[in-house]
Please model this.
Amino acid sequence: MRRKITSLLLGLGIAGASLLATSGSAQSHGYTDSPVSRQQLCGNGTVRNCGQIQWEPPSVEGPKGFPARGPRDGLICAGGNQRFAELDDPRGGAWPTTSVSAGASHTFRWRITARHATTDFRYYVTKDGYDPSKPLTRADLEPQPFLTVPFGGRQPGATVTHAGALPQKSGKHLILGVWTIADTGNAFYACSDVTF
Model:
């Protein structure tokens, strides 16, 4: 009897620890919905065959420090997270795009499902000649973000908006949004396909 109770308590302890371990990272998530991100397109059903990301659009979390560190080339849109590999599939360049105007001001919007101390939000755009039918690499992106919004360690609200001028581009491009977390080793990644 004593062994059964000990085994039961041990099992409950392991289950509780597992629950805490798996729910820890689930507390801080977010994604862009302006321009619409690939994970939102999967989450709202606009794009099909998306795997697990369709149920977890705000969960694209990976190592911070982009572009010097962070997800490997070809795995950037999924934040290096293999569970969401469908986000790195270029789908032959057929991801739906958001129409934007070169040089115009755009209001970027993040949906934050759990708040976290924030270093900044950064936006990168692909270089001229970008091929949307291939997985995204660092070499595809302009080396500097076209917009950086410092946050100084503050926690964002449920919705974060900030306006910035779009770069001078034409045709199909990809905007990579990176939300850098201040008090963990991670950042959130959002790839948005656009047409200038």
Notes: Residues 28-195 form a domain with the Coagulation Factor XIII; Chain A, domain 1 fold (CATH 2.70.50.50).
